[in-house]
Design a protein that fits this description.
The chain has one domain (3-129): Barwin-like endoglucanases, CATH 2.40.40.20. Helix 1 (13-21) packs antiparallel against helix 2. A hairpin with a 2-residue loop joins strand 3 (52-57) and strand 4 (60-68). It is globular, with a radius of gyration of 14 Å. Helices cover 28% and strands 30% of the residues. Strands 1-5-2-4-3-6 form a six-stranded mixed beta barrel. By secondary structure, it is α/β, with parallel strands linked by helices. The chain has helices at 13-21, 26-32, 39-45, 84-87, 120-129; strands at 3-10, 34-37, 52-57, 60-68, 77-81, 105-111.
């Protein structure tokens, strides 16, 4: 099953708090390597809260944990907190304004059973190496 959504990114309280602790800690992965979805969209996708999913846009893809949003209803809208995982699926070009487009990105989400959500160091190492 594949779900088409509009992806938005932004700061979250949990991500901001974990970021202050240390980006290499498991707490940061739990706070920022997530994709919040409406509970009805999780059901459509056929995954449980906490299951790995692959988020794919025209700019890249990343495996993160699906999380049921507490701010539903918002069918068709997915949220990933700012950080290394969100950076994999947003456009890096800033149109000369210095800020990439963090909102309104068309994305597809699919179950990623058996795939691993990488920590920030591993994810960024692969990005730097171009893999």
């Amino acid at each position: 099953m594949r779900l088409e959504v509009t992806l938005i990114t932004g700061r979250s309280l949990a991500q901001g708090t974990a970021r202050e602790a240390e980006k290499t800690k498991p707490e940061y992965v739990k706070a920022a390597a997530i994709c919040e979805l409406d509970p009805a969209d999780l059901k459509k996708l056929g995954v449980d809260d906490g299951a790995p999913v692959r988020v794919r846009t025209e700019y890249g893809s990343v495996v993160v944990y699906a999380t049921a949003s507490t701010q539903a209803p918002h069918l068709g809208i997915a949220f990933i907190p700012l950080g290394p995982w969100a950076n994999q699926v947003i456009r890096s070009d800033t149109d000369k304004i210095g800020t990439p487009s963090f909102k309104g990105v068309h994305a597809e989400i699919e179950p990623a059973q058996g795939e691993t959500v990488e920590d920030a160091v591993k994810l960024l190492s692969k990005t730097i190496k171009g893999k």
